[in-house]
Amino acid sequence: MIWLVAGTSEATKVLQKLLASKMPVVATVVSSYGAELITHPFSAALQKGYLKIHQEALSREAMDSFVKKYQVQALLDLSHPYARLASENLIDLASKRNLPYLRYERPSTALPKSPYLRVASTWSEALTYLEQAKAGEKVFLATGSRILAQAVPDLQSRHLVPFVRILPETDQIAHSQDLGLQPWQIIAMQGPFSYDLNKALFVHTGAQWLITKESGSPGGAIEKIQAALDSKMDIIVLKRPSLEYPQVTGDLEEVIKWAMQRQTKEIER
After folding, report:
1. Quick one: average pLDDT of 124-139?
2. Which of 5, 26, 196, 249 has the fewest CB atoms inside 10 Å of its own CB, making it the most exposed?
């Protein structure tokens, strides 16, 4: 059984190829929305048993039980580029259990050069750039929901007005409200977003700042950043976490080939 950690849109493309060859795969996702994205297009594979879906954010200890339960023979790490802890745990698991591991790292996108664009390695560094912001200025957070518990209070303590763009999931909306955000500060939409839609949202909110992640082309990074530049906004891009992967590729075809080879070796045993 191949374990595919699905945290990016590319995971669906990989699943399509693997399941076409009737390869047994167990895919893990963190959210109910992620489970839905996999369930609908691959309902036939689920019914026939080629695909199993597990929705849970697995701890390092839970990963050991998971590997035993599903008799995992190899790990495909397609977790989100910013899910550092998940990848660290998977690497440790693969090393301790002597399991083949391959990381798919979404290719980075070259950022435009502009005096209005700054790159931060950490949230703390991003806050140093925000020292230039004036009280009452609006900050558009296009970072995903996981950073909100830290980011929103930090912005509010500086008398800045945060706007958050999150997935239209009940738990994410409730989490945003629990942080003290009002409905007019919450944009619940599914991306990626076009240049025009990004710009329309920036104009609608009147934001002076954009804080985002370098999510690559599938995440709509360039459309988002260019729309902010053309809206005369200041931009802070949070860099991807740096991690030493034992085996990594940015080529989806290589990912599929690697999985096929692992399956062939398992059959030959």
Report:
1. 96
2. 196
